[in-house]
Amino acid sequence: MDSTSTDRESIPNVNGCWDWVGWYGSDFDVKSGKQSSAMKKMMDRITSGFNPIESLTELQILAITHNSVSLSWRNVSSANGY
Fold first, then answer.
1. DSSP the chain
2. Cα gap 14→59, rounded to integer Å
3. Is pTM, for the whole model, over 0.70?
4. What's the rounded Cα separation, in Å, for the pair 53 and 80?
5. Any bridge partners for residue 57, and if so which?
6. How far, in Å, CA of 28 to CA of 15, rounded?
7. What is the pLDDT of residues 25-55, one digit of tens each?
């Protein structure tokens, strides 16, 4: 059984939270709580080493129709593709 499932022996976990009733402390619903802290650490690890490219410059709207838009911008030197 995974951490978001319930069984007949426990309190229903309708929101899929790990600690929805405060078993791991009174800070279960804030940043310092075990669940929020664990999620933050996971996201930090996943995104570590990410180096965003520079922003687009001179973005212009060339044409707009009911189902499309044509854009133009100056190339970003660090982009590998668009």
1. --TT---TTS---TT--SSSS-TT-TTTTSTTSHHHHHHHHHHHHHHTT--PPPPPEEEEEEEE-SS-EEEEEEPPTT-S--
2. 45
3. no
4. 10
5. 74
6. 14
7. 888 778 888 888 998 999 999 999 888 878 7
